[in-house]
Design a protein that fits this description.
By secondary structure, the protein is an all-alpha fold. It folds into two domains: about 15-45; about 50-295, MetI-like (MetI-like fold). Helices cover about 75% and strands about 0% of the residues. It contains 13 helices and no strands. It starts with 12 loop residues before the first helix and ends in a 10-residue tail after the last helix.
Length: about 300
């Protein structure tokens, strides 16, 4: 089939022009919508010098927000690692009724607004919620406290690890596990010796993305935290409070920590992808097992 010379993929000047136009458009888009805001954060953070910058980060409320952010991530990420791995194991290794429904539940946090997710927890665990009176009687607080923030963050970040492991486990099949089972290995030993080494890099990849999302979560945590300064504020919430108070240096200084987290996450992500190409650029059918063609029986 003949090719048109003016089509970007054809030979001749049209191909060169199309390539330059596409690359230039992509670079311009990245510069305007990604690089420029990132540079602005650091420029504004250092606008008055290093002294005010470090002073803003050493503030007691900022340190409290850092501790709360790390605490929430330290609890929610391991929980999602356990539950996400278990869900991926069940979905990829077994056939059962309701499998599609379970996949839908895993994808639910991607479809629900974080603010709505936070409101759901308030309606369940709040003072006037379904379980609110019972929790008040037992003097256990969920909303406007650490448990509610952990619940909201765990819900929002749940799909990341499961969605990384499901296609990897499905691609590997069940032959290795069945061979180990025939040799007398138990379920836990099969998972520890056979399955886990095969998916450890995919798991690390998912943990990396899950942790970045947990530390940067705003919407759901904003609803359930109560914005109690120095108590339930995380770094994103602390940035909003400082910005609303016109403390731009403090707001951008705190935001620079989140920006550096994003840069480190991107660097580690690229490193993993370069060393393990199977983690890069999955097709639609690999990302969603329901779209994969059925295996030949």
């Amino acid at each position: 089939m003949s090719q048109r010379n003016d089509f970007p993929g054809s030979n001749g000047p049209g191909r060169m022009f199309g390539r330059v136009a596409l690359v230039g458009t992509a670079v311009l888009y990245l510069a305007v919508f990604l690089l420029l805001p990132l540079i602005t954060v650091f420029v504004q953070a250092l606008a008055k010098g290093l002294g005010p910058y470090w002073q803003a980060l050493a503030d007691s409320d900022a340190l409290s927000a850092m501790r709360m952010t790390l605490t929430v991530a330290a609890i929610s990420v391991p929980l999602n690692t356990v539950f996400g791995t278990a869900a991926a194991w069940v979905i990829s290794k077994y056939e059962f009724r309701g499998k599609g429904f379970l996949l839908t539940l895993i994808d639910l946090p991607f479809a629900v607004s974080p603010v709505i997710a936070g409101l759901i927890f308030v309606l369940i665990f709040g003072a006037r919620g379904w379980l609110g009176p019972w929790l008040s009687e037992h003097e256990f607080r969920v909303i406007f406290a650490l448990p509610g923030m952990v619940l909201a963050t765990t819900f929002i970040t749940f799909p990341f690890i499961a969605r990384e492991l499901i296609p990897l486990m499905q691609a590997q099949g069940r032959d290795d596990e069945e061979a180990a089972l025939s040799l007398g290995a138990g379920g836990w030993r099969i998972f520890r010796v056979v399955t886990l080494p095969n998916v450890r890099w995919g798991m690390l990849y998912g943990i990396l993305l899950c942790n970045a999302r947990a530390m940067g979560e705003f919407g759901a945590v904003s609803v359930v935290s109560g914005h109690i300064r120095g108590v339930t504020n995380t770094l994103p919430l602390h940035v909003q409070i400082l910005y609303d108070e016109y403390n731009f240096v403090g707001a951008f200084a705190t935001a620079s920590l989140l920006a550096m987290l994003a840069i480190v996450t991107l660097g580690l992500k690229s490193l993993l992808e370069s060393r393990h190409p199977e983690l890069r650029g999955r097709q639609v059918g690999d990302a969603n097992p329901r779209l994969r063609p059925a295996d030949d029986k």
